[in-house]
Write a structure and sequence with these properties.
Elements lengths: L5 H12 L6 E2 L3 H10 L7 E2 L2 H6 L6 E4 L5 H10 L8 E4 L5 H12 L4 E8 L1 H7 L2 E6 L1 H14 L2 E2 L2 E2 L9 H29 L5 H11 L7 H9 L24 H11 L5 H13 L2 H10 L10 H34 L5 H7 L10 H11 L10 H8 L2 H13 L5 H13 L6 H12 L21
Parallel strand pairs: 1-2, 3-4, 4-5
Antiparallel strand pairs: 5-6, 7-8
Length: about 450
């Protein structure tokens, strides 16, 4: 393992727990000392010298990188290359952009060094006790690592939460989309919190109790579980609930943005994921938000039937979670065709059921949908999913209209509903858009009554 920070060290300890002989390299002596301390039962040692580290490995060498994405990965590979031999393999397990992974794979293939990119989800606890892993690229290298990866991965019903994703940079692409879905789900939970707090007037204790109750039902998920726990966590310094002391400016590391960018490149709409990315950016405009909150009055808030409204909110959240997964999976379907990734959506849903941040009860239904019809174009086409959506629609419509009338921003909820309503509409008003484009730019249009490409002399109407 190169990179003995929290994730790299924990994954290495996980491998050691499963009986594999492992070692690590890090330039920081503190990380080497931490590996030795945490791995003393297994007598784990690391190396401060890259040459000694490489020479300590059996052939063919299997080297996992868990270093920050970007130029550092290229730097490490450059340092490694002269020390390696044909047949050795490098596995990049950071959050690398998939285009970088494609470039590195092509470059290393010329040197007979095997390379593949592997997304890992589950955070530090997942790395230590069982993550979900998404390896893609050099299949020969994956085969050499398969026993190790299956052993250390999370398990659901005894099945490992790792599978060969596909050729090229597919592993990192799938992990990127996983993170985009994660952004959407986190934003939806934040909006539900906002509605409970500012429309229903719930206390933190009531919000925690509500999320906990929801987590015991159909919305059982890792993110729901940790969200409930947030609302009972007390600050060590003040003794107050920490949630009330955290500044409302969200940060990000870029994977959500990458998901939005590639969706635009592929002309595939994922508006709920996009709104989640945009809202993190909007949250940083704190000074402006405070000024505008004082400049405009807020509508009066009144919930006629709070008992029914909280039921509607659960329906709205469940509906929007389905939409978030559907958008991400639709993007994977389009990318698989465009980039020839040969993705198996059922296998991806299967390995997301355990270990990863977006693991949820709902993924069992999604897995079943793609198993029943592997070539499913969109999750909404599945009959079981359609039934689940149908039971939530009155609730999500009530929540969205109420929040809007109360002046509460709900970009993720509103985009999820609008996406659904647009996608189920046989005739969109896009005919007008095409008419406008042809009017001012002669961009042409197609007709409903005749095949071909047409242009109208719009000025003749004046």
């Amino acid at each position: 393992m190169i990179g003995l920070g929290t994730m790299g060290r924990n994954l290495l300890l996980n491998m050691a727990d499963h009986g594999f002989e492992v070692t690590g390299y890090d330039k920081d002596p503190r990380m080497l000392a931490k590996l030795e301390e945490d791995g003393k039962e297994k007598n784990l040692k690391g190396h401060a010298s890259l040459e000694e580290f490489v020479q300590s490995l059996e052939l063919p060498r299997r080297i996992v990188l868990l270093v920050p994405a970007g130029p550092i990965v290229d730097s490490v590979i450059s340092e490694l290359q002269p020390l390696l031999e044909a047949g050795d393999m490098i596995i990049d397990s950071g959050n690398s952009h998939f285009t970088d992974t494609s470039r590195r794979a092509e470059d290393l293939s010329k040197t007979n060094i095997h390379f593949f990119g592997m997304g890992i989800s589950g955070g530090e606890e997942g790395a230590r006790f069982g993550p979900s892993m998404m390896p893609g690229g050099d299949k020969q290298a994956y085969t050499a690592m398969k026993e190790i990866l299956e052993a250390v991965s999370a398990k659901v019903n005894g099945e490992p939460c790792v599978t060969y994703i596909g050729p090229g940079a597919s592993g990192h692409f799938v992990k990127m989309v996983h993170n985009g879905i994660e952004y959407a789900m986190m934003q939806l939970l934040a909006e539900a919190y906002d509605i409970m707090k500012n429309s229903l007037g719930y206390s933190n204790e009531q919000i925690e109790s509500t999320f906990k109750e929801w987590n015991s039902g159909r919305m059982k998920s890792f993110l729901m579980e940790v969200t409930a726990d947030v609302f009972k966590f007390k600050d060590e310094k003040t003794g107050k609930l920490l949630i009330d002391l955290i500044k409302d400016e969200a940060k990000s590391k870029g994977t959500g943005k990458w998901t939005s960018q590639v969706s635009m490149d592929l002309y595939l709409p994922i508006p709920t994921i996009n709104e989640a990315v945009s809202t993190r950016d909007l949250s940083k405009l704190k000074k402006l938000r405070v000024a505008l909150s004082e400049a405009f009055d807020k509508p009066e808030i009144k919930i006629e039937n709070p008992e029914q409204f909280i039921v509607d909110l659960e329906n709205a959240l469940y509906f929007s979670m389905i939409v978030s997964y559907a958008q991400g999976l639709h993007l994977l379907t389009q990318a698989s065709e465009a980039y020839k990734y040969e993705l198996k959506l059922d296998e991806i849903a299967k390995i997301w059921r355990g270990g990863c941040i977006i693991r949820a009860e709902l993924l069992q239904d999604i897995y079943a949908a793609y198993q029943a019809k592997p070539n499913l174009e969109h999750l909404f086409e599945d009959k079981n999913i359609q039934e689940k959506i149908a039971g939530t629609l009155s609730g999500v419509r009530n929540v969205c209209s109420t929040a809007i009338n109360h002046g509460i921003g709900i970009p993720a909820f509103a985009s999820a509903l609008t996406y659904f309503d647009s996608l189920r509409t046989a005739n969109l008003p896009s005919n007008l858009t095409q008419a406008q484009r042809d009017f001012f730019g002669a961009h042409t249009f197609e007709r409903t009554d005749e095949e071909g490409i047409f242009h109208a002399n719009w000025n003749a109407a004046n």
